Amino acid sequence: MTNLELLDWKLLYQDLNEHGFAKIKNALSKEDCGSLIEGYHATARYRNTIVMERYRFGKGEYKYFSYPLPALIQQLRNELYTPLATLANAWMQHLQIDNQYPLDHDTFIKSCHAVNQLRPTPLILTYEAGGYNTLHQDLYGVLYFPFQILFVLNQEGKDYEGGEFVMTEQIPRAQSRAHVLKLDAGDALIFTTNFRPAKGSKGYYRANMKHGVSTVTSGRRYALGIIFHDAQ
Ligand SMILES: O=C(O)CCC(=O)C(=O)O
Ligand SMILES: [Fe+2]
């Protein structure tokens, strides 16, 4: 990440509280995006390749990085965790959920390992024309962190068309609301993995959120996902 320490967390917290997601412009440099894309075919980096159609997850392919993670990904996962854990703890309090996250990622990962969630979850995804990702959540076990981050690695309108990031928010006793997010190459989106606390007349309630990607209509789209918990 170019300027991690310069992030305006006050503003990011505000967006996350209000919407359940927050955009970071130019989170990754062009060079970092380029080398992540170039590394897509370096098979030794990855523990597993998923052809999405096989599981009816959509149409496209993704690969999970193995441990040890590439330095950049390890750094992003470590450094972005702490400010998000602070917000996660506030959310748990609002929702009266008896759960507090440790403020450093190493301790959190140790607690994942203690419940047999051992496998790293950062992943790189690609979709060609006709590809898409159905609405889902990335929980991977009983222990999950309530935020994750997506980095779009190439440019909509130039490298591909379509392929918008979509989030839905399920409002109790109502229809779902959709958010369509335009992200440029290098931009990141922090979003809730499961639900956000929404304010109702009797305090906070859980608004369940899912995410996915609309159909890529031409070209090829690449993205990097950072999930903070490990998988079973
Ligand atoms: O390709 C995308 O933008 C969606 C990735 C995704 O589902 C994730 O990062 O969890
Ligand atoms: Fe996902």
TrEMBL record:
Transmembrane segments annotated in the record for this chain: none
Keywords associated with the record: Iron, Metal-binding, Oxidoreductase
A Pfam family matched in the record: Oxygenase-NA
Record keyword Ribosomal protein present: no
Gene3D superfamilies noted in UniProt: q2cbj1_9rhob like domain
Domain Fe2OG dioxygenase, first and last residues per copy: 108-231
Entry similarity comment: Belongs to the iron/ascorbate-dependent oxidoreductase family.
Entry protein name: 2OG-Fe(II) oxygenase
